[in-house]
Design brief:
This is Sulfate transporter CysZ. It is a multi-pass membrane protein. GO terms for molecular function: high-affinity sulfate:proton symporter activity. High affinity, high specificity proton-dependent sulfate transporter, which mediates sulfate uptake. Provides the sulfur source for the cysteine synthesis pathway. There is one protein chain. This protein has 256 residues and is an all-alpha fold. The protein has one domain. Helix content is 77%, strand content 0%. It is elongated. It starts with 12 loop residues before the first helix and ends in a 6-residue tail after the last helix. The relative contact order is 0.19.
Length: 256
Protein backbone atom coordinates (compact mmCIF):
# COMPACT_ATOMS: atom_id res chain seq x y z
CA UNK A 1 0.00 0.00 0.00
CA UNK A 2 1.15 3.53 -0.60
CA UNK A 3 2.36 5.97 2.02
CA UNK A 4 2.11 9.20 0.00
CA UNK A 5 -1.40 8.88 -1.40
CA UNK A 6 -4.69 7.80 0.06
CA UNK A 7 -5.44 4.21 -0.92
CA UNK A 8 -9.01 4.96 -1.86
CA UNK A 9 -10.49 3.63 -5.08
CA UNK A 10 -12.89 6.60 -5.14
CA UNK A 11 -10.09 9.07 -5.83
CA UNK A 12 -10.49 10.39 -9.35
CA UNK A 13 -8.18 11.54 -12.13
CA UNK A 14 -8.38 15.18 -11.06
CA UNK A 15 -7.05 14.21 -7.62
CA UNK A 16 -3.99 12.52 -9.08
CA UNK A 17 -3.25 15.48 -11.32
CA UNK A 18 -3.38 17.84 -8.33
CA UNK A 19 -1.22 15.40 -6.38
CA UNK A 20 1.39 15.51 -9.14
CA UNK A 21 2.02 19.21 -8.44
CA UNK A 22 2.88 18.37 -4.83
CA UNK A 23 5.01 15.35 -5.62
CA UNK A 24 7.41 17.13 -8.01
CA UNK A 25 8.70 19.18 -5.06
CA UNK A 26 9.50 16.18 -2.85
CA UNK A 27 12.97 15.86 -1.43
CA UNK A 28 15.10 13.47 -3.50
CA UNK A 29 13.07 13.89 -6.68
CA UNK A 30 14.08 17.33 -7.88
CA UNK A 31 17.16 16.17 -9.81
CA UNK A 32 15.00 13.65 -11.71
CA UNK A 33 12.44 16.37 -12.50
CA UNK A 34 14.99 18.73 -14.10
CA UNK A 35 15.73 16.82 -17.33
CA UNK A 36 12.07 16.14 -18.32
CA UNK A 37 11.36 19.75 -17.39
CA UNK A 38 14.15 21.11 -19.61
CA UNK A 39 13.03 18.92 -22.54
CA UNK A 40 9.50 20.21 -22.23
CA UNK A 41 10.55 23.85 -21.91
CA UNK A 42 12.80 23.71 -24.98
CA UNK A 43 10.48 21.74 -27.29
CA UNK A 44 6.99 22.80 -26.21
CA UNK A 45 8.07 26.36 -25.41
CA UNK A 46 9.66 26.86 -28.84
CA UNK A 47 6.71 25.20 -30.60
CA UNK A 48 4.12 27.39 -28.90
CA UNK A 49 6.16 30.53 -29.48
CA UNK A 50 5.98 29.73 -33.21
CA UNK A 51 2.30 28.70 -33.10
CA UNK A 52 1.06 31.90 -31.51
CA UNK A 53 2.49 33.80 -34.47
CA UNK A 54 0.77 31.50 -36.99
CA UNK A 55 -2.53 30.50 -35.40
CA UNK A 56 -4.46 33.43 -36.89
CA UNK A 57 -3.63 32.34 -40.44
CA UNK A 58 -4.44 28.71 -39.60
CA UNK A 59 -7.85 29.61 -38.19
CA UNK A 60 -8.63 31.82 -41.20
CA UNK A 61 -7.76 28.93 -43.52
CA UNK A 62 -10.04 26.60 -41.58
CA UNK A 63 -12.88 29.14 -41.55
CA UNK A 64 -12.64 29.37 -45.35
CA UNK A 65 -13.67 25.69 -45.44
CA UNK A 66 -16.96 26.46 -43.71
CA UNK A 67 -19.90 26.37 -46.20
CA UNK A 68 -21.72 29.66 -46.76
CA UNK A 69 -24.90 28.29 -45.25
CA UNK A 70 -23.03 27.69 -41.97
CA UNK A 71 -21.52 31.17 -41.70
CA UNK A 72 -24.16 32.17 -39.17
CA UNK A 73 -22.47 29.69 -36.78
CA UNK A 74 -19.08 31.40 -37.10
CA UNK A 75 -19.22 32.60 -33.49
CA UNK A 76 -19.20 28.93 -32.42
CA UNK A 77 -17.03 27.43 -35.15
CA UNK A 78 -14.19 29.96 -34.68
CA UNK A 79 -13.38 29.00 -31.04
CA UNK A 80 -13.81 25.30 -31.86
CA UNK A 81 -11.28 25.71 -34.68
CA UNK A 82 -8.80 27.36 -32.29
CA UNK A 83 -9.24 24.53 -29.78
CA UNK A 84 -8.86 21.94 -32.54
CA UNK A 85 -5.55 23.47 -33.71
CA UNK A 86 -4.24 23.71 -30.14
CA UNK A 87 -5.15 20.11 -29.38
CA UNK A 88 -3.50 18.72 -32.50
CA UNK A 89 -0.43 20.88 -32.01
CA UNK A 90 -0.23 20.17 -28.28
CA UNK A 91 -0.35 16.41 -28.63
CA UNK A 92 2.19 16.33 -31.47
CA UNK A 93 4.85 18.36 -29.67
CA UNK A 94 4.22 16.91 -26.21
CA UNK A 95 4.66 13.47 -27.78
CA UNK A 96 7.93 14.61 -29.36
CA UNK A 97 9.13 15.93 -25.98
CA UNK A 98 8.14 12.64 -24.33
CA UNK A 99 10.04 10.58 -26.90
CA UNK A 100 13.21 12.60 -26.37
CA UNK A 101 12.90 12.60 -22.58
CA UNK A 102 11.40 9.09 -22.23
CA UNK A 103 14.41 7.45 -20.48
CA UNK A 104 14.45 10.26 -17.90
CA UNK A 105 10.66 10.22 -17.55
CA UNK A 106 10.84 6.51 -16.73
CA UNK A 107 13.57 7.20 -14.18
CA UNK A 108 11.44 9.87 -12.48
CA UNK A 109 8.49 7.46 -12.28
CA UNK A 110 10.76 4.75 -10.89
CA UNK A 111 12.26 6.94 -8.16
CA UNK A 112 8.86 8.25 -7.11
CA UNK A 113 7.39 4.75 -6.97
CA UNK A 114 10.29 3.70 -4.75
CA UNK A 115 9.47 6.56 -2.37
CA UNK A 116 5.75 5.79 -2.33
CA UNK A 117 6.03 2.04 -1.81
CA UNK A 118 9.24 1.94 0.24
CA UNK A 119 10.52 -0.74 -2.14
CA UNK A 120 13.92 0.02 -3.65
CA UNK A 121 13.92 -0.27 -7.45
CA UNK A 122 16.75 -2.22 -9.07
CA UNK A 123 19.83 -0.04 -9.53
CA UNK A 124 20.84 -0.55 -13.15
CA UNK A 125 23.11 2.49 -13.25
CA UNK A 126 23.87 4.66 -16.25
CA UNK A 127 24.98 1.66 -18.34
CA UNK A 128 21.73 -0.15 -17.69
CA UNK A 129 19.75 2.96 -18.58
CA UNK A 130 21.60 3.36 -21.87
CA UNK A 131 21.05 -0.30 -22.75
CA UNK A 132 17.33 0.12 -22.11
CA UNK A 133 16.98 3.16 -24.38
CA UNK A 134 16.17 1.15 -27.59
CA UNK A 135 13.40 -0.76 -25.79
CA UNK A 136 12.00 2.48 -24.33
CA UNK A 137 12.00 4.18 -27.72
CA UNK A 138 10.32 1.13 -29.28
CA UNK A 139 7.59 1.48 -26.66
CA UNK A 140 7.11 5.13 -27.64
CA UNK A 141 6.78 4.07 -31.29
CA UNK A 142 4.12 1.53 -30.25
CA UNK A 143 2.10 4.38 -28.76
CA UNK A 144 2.49 6.40 -31.95
CA UNK A 145 1.35 3.41 -34.04
CA UNK A 146 -1.78 3.21 -31.84
CA UNK A 147 -2.36 6.95 -32.12
CA UNK A 148 -1.82 7.71 -35.82
CA UNK A 149 -4.64 5.77 -37.55
CA UNK A 150 -7.19 7.09 -35.06
CA UNK A 151 -5.87 10.63 -35.37
CA UNK A 152 -6.04 10.44 -39.18
CA UNK A 153 -9.72 9.40 -39.04
CA UNK A 154 -10.50 12.34 -36.74
CA UNK A 155 -8.61 14.75 -38.98
CA UNK A 156 -10.57 13.53 -42.01
CA UNK A 157 -13.80 14.21 -40.13
CA UNK A 158 -12.94 17.89 -40.19
CA UNK A 159 -13.52 18.00 -43.95
CA UNK A 160 -17.11 16.77 -43.57
CA UNK A 161 -19.44 19.80 -43.53
CA UNK A 162 -21.14 20.47 -40.18
CA UNK A 163 -19.61 17.39 -38.51
CA UNK A 164 -16.08 18.64 -39.07
CA UNK A 165 -16.70 22.10 -37.66
CA UNK A 166 -18.75 21.04 -34.63
CA UNK A 167 -18.34 17.40 -33.64
CA UNK A 168 -14.70 16.76 -34.69
CA UNK A 169 -13.10 19.17 -32.14
CA UNK A 170 -15.10 17.55 -29.32
CA UNK A 171 -14.12 14.03 -30.42
CA UNK A 172 -10.52 15.16 -30.76
CA UNK A 173 -10.54 16.54 -27.20
CA UNK A 174 -11.86 13.24 -25.82
CA UNK A 175 -9.37 11.22 -27.87
CA UNK A 176 -6.53 13.56 -26.83
CA UNK A 177 -7.48 13.07 -23.17
CA UNK A 178 -7.34 9.29 -23.60
CA UNK A 179 -3.94 9.51 -25.32
CA UNK A 180 -2.56 11.75 -22.56
CA UNK A 181 -3.68 9.18 -19.99
CA UNK A 182 -1.96 6.44 -21.99
CA UNK A 183 1.17 8.52 -22.53
CA UNK A 184 1.84 9.25 -18.87
CA UNK A 185 0.46 6.09 -17.24
CA UNK A 186 2.71 4.11 -19.54
CA UNK A 187 5.89 5.17 -17.72
CA UNK A 188 5.22 3.31 -14.44
CA UNK A 189 3.69 0.36 -16.32
CA UNK A 190 6.69 0.14 -18.63
CA UNK A 191 9.11 0.28 -15.70
CA UNK A 192 7.70 -3.13 -14.75
CA UNK A 193 7.89 -4.40 -18.36
CA UNK A 194 4.10 -4.68 -18.57
CA UNK A 195 3.03 -4.91 -22.21
CA UNK A 196 1.30 -2.01 -23.94
CA UNK A 197 -1.81 -4.14 -24.57
CA UNK A 198 -2.07 -5.15 -20.89
CA UNK A 199 -1.55 -1.56 -19.77
CA UNK A 200 -4.24 -0.32 -22.16
CA UNK A 201 -6.66 -2.98 -20.93
CA UNK A 202 -6.10 -1.94 -17.30
CA UNK A 203 -6.71 1.72 -18.10
CA UNK A 204 -9.92 0.88 -20.00
CA UNK A 205 -11.31 -0.82 -16.90
CA UNK A 206 -10.92 2.53 -15.13
CA UNK A 207 -11.61 4.65 -18.21
CA UNK A 208 -13.56 7.55 -16.72
CA UNK A 209 -10.91 8.38 -14.12
CA UNK A 210 -8.20 8.15 -16.77
CA UNK A 211 -10.19 10.41 -19.09
CA UNK A 212 -10.44 12.94 -16.24
CA UNK A 213 -6.68 12.74 -15.76
CA UNK A 214 -6.05 13.17 -19.50
CA UNK A 215 -8.58 16.01 -19.86
CA UNK A 216 -6.95 18.18 -17.22
CA UNK A 217 -3.50 17.51 -18.72
CA UNK A 218 -4.89 18.52 -22.13
CA UNK A 219 -6.24 21.77 -20.75
CA UNK A 220 -3.08 22.71 -18.85
CA UNK A 221 -0.91 21.85 -21.85
CA UNK A 222 -2.71 24.58 -23.82
CA UNK A 223 -2.01 27.23 -21.15
CA UNK A 224 1.23 29.20 -21.74
CA UNK A 225 3.88 28.96 -18.96
CA UNK A 226 1.97 26.21 -17.11
CA UNK A 227 2.40 23.89 -20.10
CA UNK A 228 6.18 24.08 -19.67
CA UNK A 229 6.09 22.18 -16.37
CA UNK A 230 3.25 19.80 -17.16
CA UNK A 231 5.39 16.80 -18.13
CA UNK A 232 6.94 15.97 -14.71
CA UNK A 233 3.65 16.86 -12.99
CA UNK A 234 1.75 14.36 -15.16
CA UNK A 235 4.40 11.67 -14.64
CA UNK A 236 4.21 12.05 -10.86
CA UNK A 237 0.40 12.03 -10.89
CA UNK A 238 0.32 8.93 -13.11
CA UNK A 239 2.86 7.15 -10.89
CA UNK A 240 0.74 7.84 -7.81
CA UNK A 241 -2.29 6.47 -9.67
CA UNK A 242 -0.33 3.36 -10.66
CA UNK A 243 0.66 2.74 -7.05
CA UNK A 244 -2.88 3.17 -5.76
CA UNK A 245 -4.92 1.50 -8.46
CA UNK A 246 -2.83 -0.87 -10.61
CA UNK A 247 0.38 -1.95 -8.91
CA UNK A 248 -1.17 -4.63 -6.72
CA UNK A 249 -2.72 -6.53 -9.64
CA UNK A 250 0.47 -6.46 -11.74
CA UNK A 251 3.25 -7.11 -9.19
CA UNK A 252 3.82 -9.47 -6.31
CA UNK A 253 3.52 -8.16 -2.76
CA UNK A 254 6.78 -6.77 -1.41
CA UNK A 255 8.59 -7.13 -4.72
CA UNK A 256 9.53 -4.56 -7.32
Amino acid sequence: MTNLTETNKNLNGFHYFALGWRLITRKGLKRFVILPLLANIIILGSAFWWLYGQIGDMVNWMMEKVPDWLQWLSYLIWPLSVIFILLVFTYFFSTLANIIASPFNGLLAEKLEGQITGITPPDTGVTGLLKDVPRILKRELTKIAYYLPRAIVLLLLYFIPVVGQTVAPILWFAFGAWMMAIQYNDFPFDNHKISFATMKSSLKQDKWNNLQFGMIINIFTMIPILNLVIMPVAICGATAMWCDRYRKQHTQEGQW
